[in-house]
Amino acid sequence: MIHTREADADTLTILREERRQAGPGIRFGGCCTALPHARPRASRPGLGFYVSLAGIVTFPKAADLRATAAPIPLDRLLVETDQPFLAPVPHRGKRNEPAHVTKVVEALAPLYGVEVDELAGRTTANFHTLFGP
Fold first, then answer.
1. Pairing between strand 77-79 and 50-53?
2. Distance from chain centroid for Cα 35
3. Is the pLDDT of residue 35 over 50?
4. By C-alpha distance, which of 94, 95, 93, 91 is closest to 106?
5. What are the pLDDT digits (tens) for 69-78?
6. Which domain range does residue 21 map to?
7. 106 domain residue, yes or no
8. Please, which residues bridge with residue 2 across strands?
9. Given this model, what pLDDT does residue 20 score?
10. Cβ contact 11:87 at 8 Å
11. C-alpha to C-alpha distance for 3 and 5, rounded to whole angstroms
12. What is the pTM of this model?
């Protein structure tokens, strides 16, 4: 698992170089905001990483992050809380917790044109594909 901040370009370079050793089960991101174009590129064929997004996608000023999240294929999308930090709206400024991940799903569902329950099911299935039953 890779959690990168302000080093997306370097991270992608290293991942490309090490791809043959890494296998497909790598989670990239979470809160990475330095180079938004890195998230969709990481999930494309050839790299095929899972990309995980956290509560920051619910912030009013995160429109750019939401826009760059949209091209991430649904079969490569994960959601997370990044607890105890970056609680989603309406919990912003408070301690984050796992139950708040539903707010992340609610913010992302319209980007994909799917219902909240469908996106929750897809991201749960992706989790089990990546980490096992």
1. parallel
2. 14
3. no
4. 91
5. 888 889 989 9
6. 8-131
7. yes
8. 28
9. 53
10. no
11. 7
12. 0.77
Give CA–CA dist 121/99, Å, rounded: 15
**Could you give the CA distance from residue 38 to residue 114 in angstroms, rounded to a whole number?**
24
SS (H, E, C) 48-63: CCEEEECHHHHCCCCH
DSSP string across 8-19? HHHHHHHHHHHH
Radius of gyration of the chain (CA): 14
Return the CATH number at 110.
3.20.20.140
CB atoms within 10 A of CB 23: 8
Q: Is residue 1 a part of any domain in this protein?
A: no
Between CA 119 and CA 87 the distance in angstroms is 20
Question: What is the b/e burial string over 87-118, where b = at least 16 CB atoms within 10 angstroms of the residue's CB?
Answer: bbbebbeeebeeebbebbbbbbbebbeeeeee
